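Figure S7 source data.
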Amino acid sequence: MIPGARLVLLGRQGAGKGTQCVRLSRHYVVPHISTGDILRAAVREGTEFGKKAKAIMDAGDLVPDDIMVGIVDERLDRDDTRSRGFILDGFPRTVAQARALVEITQPRGIDLVLNLEVPREVVLARLASRRVCLDCGANYSTERPPRYGATCDVCGGDVIQREDDTVEAINRRLDLYEAETAPLIAWFDERGLLVEVDGAGDPDAVFDRLVEVIDGIRGRG
Ligand code: AMP
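Tokens for the predicted adenosine monophosphate complex:
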């Protein structure tokens, strides 16, 4: 079995992180950990926490750092991540979360942070047509729908439009990204962990670019 990987994917909402993480997870046999998917699962379960998270998410705001760090800390402690590593999608989103992640992942740390770069104008159009699988997080769009109606090609789950993919919430999330998340790019770069990958164009081409970068790093390790 090939060795696992410990990766973080950064990029604006709609840059294709979800799509690429699902594919990378299958390719490297490494768990895909999407904090957005974890929160949406809590919302569906209807717990007290889920209700609070839903209000924050629907407004396009960020869930407090201490809660997010607790969720990720617990998830990274399970057997699958201990043995295979992780592909983090949607975390960290603030410098405080990034600092906590570096702590949590000691002593091995993170192998690589990939920044999927797609301009704001492009992601705005993508988000408006985005559809996602409620169960596995696979991404579709109105132009690339699932093969059979609203049933996921990957797992058979329900494919829906997210409630936070409204124009207002999208703009709020993109503003927050520039304010809170974009500084992470510089933060990881200063630590020698960052590689920028062009996220424009065909998803197959973007996937090939990502694999080339990741394999390059693994070859060195
Ligand atoms: P995503 O699916 O990654 O776009 O996440 C959907 C929503 O979940 C975000 O707009 C936030 O409200 C919340 N969320 C997900 N990950 C985080 C995080 N790391 N920190 C704070 N809020 C988060």
